[in-house]
Amino acid sequence: MSDYSLVCWGPGVSGGVSKVFDRVLPGPCAPWTSCTCGVWSGSAPLCGGGTGYAAVCYPCGYSPQLMVLTPPTSDSSASSHSRWTKRRPSDLAIALISAGIGSGVLAAIAAVVAVYCLRRRRSGASQDPGRIHAEPIGPAPRVERRLSALLSKGPNTTVEQFPLVALRGATDGFSPSHRIGSGSFGVVYRACLPDGREVAIKRAERRGPVAESSSVAARRANNHEVAFVAELTLLSRVNHKNLVRLLGFCADGGERILVYEYMPNGTLHDHLHKRAAPLSPPLASWPARLRLALGAARGIEYMHTYAVPPIIHRDIKSPNILLDDAWTAKVSDFGLSLLINDLSSSGGGNGCNAAAADDEPCMTAGTVGYMDPEYYRLQHLTDKSDVYSFGVVLLELLSGCKVIQRFEGSGTPKNVVDVTVPHIEADRMHRVLDARLPLPTPAEMEAVAYVGYLASDCVRPAGRDRPTMSEVVGVLERAVAACEEHDDGGGEAVLSRSCTDGSTA
What we know:
This protein is α+β, with helices and mostly antiparallel strands. The chain folds into three domains: 24-59; 127-262, Phosphorylase Kinase, domain 1, CATH 3.30.200.20; 267-505, Transferase(Phosphotransferase) domain 1 (Transferase(Phosphotransferase), domain 1), CATH 1.10.510. The protein has helices spanning 74-85, 89-126, 141-151, 164-170, 214-235, 268-273, 286-306, 340-345, 373-378, 384-399, 416-425, 442-458, 469-487, and strands at residues 5-8, 17-20, 29-31, 54-56, 160-161, 179-182, 186-192, 198-204, 246-250, 257-261, 311-312, 321-323, 329-331, 338-339, 404-405, 414-415. Strands 5-9-10-8-7-6 form a six-stranded mixed beta sheet, with helices on both faces. Strands 1-2 form a two-stranded antiparallel ribbon. A two-stranded antiparallel sheet has the order 3-4. α11 crosses α12 and α12 packs antiparallel against α13 (469-487). It is elongated. 34% of the residues are buried. Keywords: ATP-binding, Kinase, Membrane, Nucleotide-binding, Serine/threonine-protein kinase, Transferase, Transmembrane, Transmembrane helix. Residues 174-480 form the Protein kinase domain. The chain crosses the membrane at residues 92-116.
């Protein structure tokens, strides 16, 4: 009735007939006041033209039935198709244009939504609470396995697990006032533990999400994990007076912290290149410099020869040689170190250490100026790579020059190897020696020249032509003995170039 149509049916009516009447009322007219549930819309003009305030009352409780759509029959489909095809061409064109516009709008909306979702996904990745700048619930699986292996040793291990709250308290919340250095792994803090021990705390760097892309953050996080596990694994199994001692670690709340014995006299690099006059005691005389070199060499020899399995440091340099309160040289920073057993199992190439054994990609590592060129060129790592790097440190000690700097008469920076070795090979040692020290005595000069030849042998291009670290230690021991015998008034030691060439006798 909503369309005011009249349908007749019943006996005597053949079929249903439907006719739309122009003026058919849906109900009787009645005064407005009697319509308690309202009036039919538009019925007032039909009830006396609007006079007398009459209208058709709206039935109380009436709810119009919703039309239920049923699938069209074949006849209705054909009828629908015929109605579509019989439309005028202009109607068809309008319909096609409308459909095209609608499809274009939908495509544009879909593209906008896709771009928005992609940006949200990338943003979510860079702000993922599991990334390096946040605090995951616990250590990564690889780190967790290493920690479990260490702690399972029980009282036999000397590595201690420190609670994060204790380290925060010892550094005043990792305050900058406790900061004493930094490196690729992170920041180093000086602290005093509640039991009175003075320690160095190396904490992995933690950057915010805006500081770097997600890929860089992931790579940095992986490097920190590998370095953390490498130092923890290697230093927990070695003990030598010329290696910095690892006291413990902390992996609470996603932290990667290593705790070492504190070295109050800093690094060899700082004393050689940053400290103003006067020179520090271990650098103030030629015998003292040779003794310092001997101490560092013994630490490296221990890693190569006596550690089980042997260890290749990969980053020997003057910043990684620390000095304790007695000026004893100690090798530090084992984050790039590799086990020789792992090199053997990988075919002698780059190798992956035990820390990186879980499908971690390995790459050439080290520091510019100290890195073995053969290792860099051929991607083949041996213990002779550490020998090369130590040879560069010897040249620093002899010349007082930085590993890379602008030398007199050269406008471009040069490596200390390229500048000093030609003079050493030509027996012009006086052109190499650090001018901040007095000229050596004749006995000291012989010992210094002896060490100069050793340094030249250490930095030979081919690894097979370099001495082993045991041979290096033997040469330095003889050089130090020659200086000390002369100081004690003893007989002069006979030193010759042949003693540095593959002989420790």
